[in-house]
Specification:
A hairpin with a 5-residue loop joins strand 5 (about 90-95) and strand 6. This protein has one helix at about 75-85, and strands at about 10-15, 25, 30-40, 60-70, 90-95, 100-115, 120-130, 135. The two termini are about 15 Å apart. By secondary structure, it is mainly beta. Strands 1, 2, 3, 4, 5, 6, 7 and 8 form an eight-stranded antiparallel sheet that branches.
Length: about 140
Amino acid sequence: MTAQKGSLLLLKVGDGATPTENFTTVGGLRTTGFTHNNQTVDATNKDSGAWRELLDGAGTRSITISGSGVFTDAASEETVRGFAMNNQIKNYKMTFGNGDSMTGPFQITSYQRAGNYNNEETYSISLASAGAITFTAA
């Protein structure tokens, strides 16, 4: 596997159109990342021999996405800001440098903007999955 450019890891926001939803890259982001979490279900019992046993395939799965960058007042930033202010669940897509993607419903759990007197205005967002996420290989 070859190394991939970090600039190709993109967060995109959906427009809600049906039957084919269109996704636009969220502008101004410099860093984007995600974490996939798996909650475990402890199935340890008297026959476990004092070793913890986990129930295979059980538990809650979730994905969190984070991003931060320069505020450019792009239309996509305005869309995301509106979703954050109205506490809305919308579809988002992350695309990767090799062409893979993951798509699904997310809610913005944190939206921040900041600025120093002699630097650019910045913003950061955090999103939490709100349903099934589809992974599509390139």
